[in-house]
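Researcher: Structure prediction, please.
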Amino acid sequence: MQEGTIDQSADQPKYQQLIEYVLTGIEQGTLALGQQLPSISEWASLQRVAKVTVAKAYEDLRQRGVIRSHHGKGFYVASTNVRTSLNVLVIFDTLNAYKETLYDALKAALPADASLSIFFHHYNPAVFETLVRNNLGRFNAYVLMPHFDSDVSAVAGLIPPEKLLLLDQTLPNLPGDFAAVYQDFEQDIYNALLTAHERLRHYRRLTLIQSKDRFQYIPPSLLAGFQRFGQDYNFPIRLVDTYMPALVQPGEVCLLFTDRDLIDFLKEVNRLGLVLGQEVGLLSYDDTPMKEILAGGISVISTDFARMGQTAGQLLTSRQRAKIANPGALILRKSL
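Model: Predicted structure follows.
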């Protein structure tokens, strides 16, 4: 048992941290069947906790059949069959169609006895922190979607890295060996626009609408990839904060992020009598079943959310801590 097992500042009870340290050690093979554990006094001294805390942890493990005690000799690992059913906390940003696809794929990839609890932070860091702190120690896996303009690494770091999986994007400032299934937003949008270059050349300008009035989170790396494409290929681009009907003009292509902006854009196209995909172009971010058929088909830049959920489920099931980039691509339809 190494020094530093206990996080003195964590909300999770200290005896529970000791229990999980033993269970994780057995699962990962660092504690073998029959191996002797430190005495109550030794571990209390090493971890700087009360003896009663260690005794409580050992008694819990003994009742589970994980360890056994021999009077006067100490405590020993009695069973290596300690793998428990997955109990997963999922914290998404908000609910929409592609999150349903992602969640359904995640759930389908988990064992039948796994349980999931889902919450939403709605891009509010304070809500996110409350959800994390209130659920520390209650789950054996945590799936977080950290879509924020501020760095939430300190909050995500409250979760033991072996229990943490980040979804859709990573946190560069978060230390530890945790799992992640993420999008490479900068390279994905750059590659998608490059694939669409021939179609885009039929228009005079590409406008990205950030939808700031609709609380839409757009990663800075995505904006960087968008601007890099414009610079590398000398293509006229611009960024605007919010959708306005005046943006719908012949020769323009708009890249939209929210369904509300998408509907408003199509209404204005119809009002003006413009031909979508010829006189005016439309790109949308993140594919949904609706976009396959709406207005004859909306061209999208999207990651494969079903694959993202499946990969995340596989990592959770196998307890792997890999960091995997989820593929993204352009899907060309009638609107461009």
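Model: Residues 87-183+305-326 form a domain with the Rossmann fold fold (CATH 3.40.50.2300).
Researcher: Thanks, that helps.
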